[in-house]
Write a structure and sequence with these properties.
78% helix; single chain; elongated; mainly alpha; 0% strand
Amino acid sequence: MAGIKSTMDLVMERAARMGMATPDEMRHEERLKKGMQSTAEYLNGTKPSLAAILGEHEPSEHASIRKGMLNSLLRNLFLPRDEEGTKRIERAVRGIIELNKDTADIAALCQELQTITSQYGQHRTQLYDQLKEQMRMQIEQMLMRKGMKADTSKIDPTMEPQFKEQWTRLEMDLDGQYGQALEQFKAQLKDWTGV
């Protein structure tokens, strides 16, 4: 309930600001939205280049649209759980580099960020597989103690509640460690890109 009230308060504050906004502020807001929408199309693969999208607009609009693009790109830097997430991050990083092609430091920082997200994916898979094997062995030992023969091909430890509990705990710890590093990179990118 508190979350709903908080969101509603934000909406009301924004509406109040919109009523008091100058025409320039409203145009700036529209350009930010345009940049964000263009970035969504870019990330989904329907637009090939953010620079080309930016080139379709008046030079006087570029700063606001670029800022909207960068905001959206930075929001798409997260810890990937699958191949699709990894591809989306790669595309977001390419977009950040494309919009800041004159700044080598940003390209280097983006490379480090991609290394972190890649290591996260590898570490996550490794932990999952280790836990799965550990649980399989525990189930086999339990069945053998009861005098039953275990058919290891039919044992799926991921269906056990204990597996799910332990995996949730491990995943939260892993997300906390890597998430902190990711947030530091994102904060540095925000500073360097002026977002």
